[in-house]
Amino acid sequence: MSDHPADHPADHPPEPALGLHLEPLEGGWSGRTFLGTVAGERTVVRVYPPEDGDAAARDAAVLRLGRRVLAGCAPVPEVLETRAGDPDGGAPGLLLTQHLPGVRGDLLLPRLDEPALAAAGRVLGEVVARLAGAVQPRAGRFVDEQLTLASWEPPWDAGSLVDLVAELVPRLDLVAADRDAVLGLAGDADDVLQDAAREGPGAVLVHGDLNAKNLLLATTEDDRVLVTGVLDWEFAHAGSPWADLGNLLREQRSPAYVEAVLDTVAVRRGVAADLALDLARAADLVAVVELATRRGSNPVSDAAHERLLVMARARDLHAC
């Protein structure tokens, strides 16, 4: 359920392990996530290549951190069991987590009326605000079970957003004028983010893929909307306080929904709603550019390429 399809997704479930019966989970991350049943209980099983070693333990630690940060706000799957990969024996690593109820947001949100969209926006704004308040020592990627932060690898170690986008631009399938316009957008985004960085935390916990596909929602008889699960933390890292907000608002642009998200974040984070939106669009630019470099590989990347073209030609981060 990620924007980042794997290079080598699994075509079939792995051999049953730990007494599990496995079947592919609809929308599952990169073809490596399965619905497992053991003793009549449903679980979610993430399978890792043997060479990934302790990746399951690292992701389990991220989930536990997410559960602490979002406690009382939104459920995060509980870790039930992990198994390290064995490159010598060829056994995959496994991460077993709780199966949470609810409907994927990308399936539910289009069916909601404006009051319900506003209700959804308020509860998801709380999730974003809580994550943006989880300050981290510095920006970087989590590399082990202790959640040690390591520096980004090239090109992600570029000194600024402009430098990073400049590294990615040659990979884009764009004419020269459009590439120049993308670099201009990066300059605009960098200005917005640099101004904010002088007044706020440098790095916070970032889910890294906080979009409707990775959120479980439910409606109630009294017209409330509940978040019943925040899923797929594989891309979690320490980074911009505005990255998750940008991801959340990239595709879902209903005014009722957007205004509710922004109003909630504005109150919780002490920033004007219009500035929060500017920061969100600026922080999300690099994700859109990176996805666009993979145009033709999947529908998400194709959509990002089209979105980037619209923004570049309008010279407007908000264009859609």
Automatic annotation (TrEMBL):
- The protein in question is named Unannotated protein
Q: One matching Pfam family, short form?
A: APH
Coiled-coil ranges per UniProt: none
- Residues forming the Aminoglycoside phosphotransferase domain are 22-263
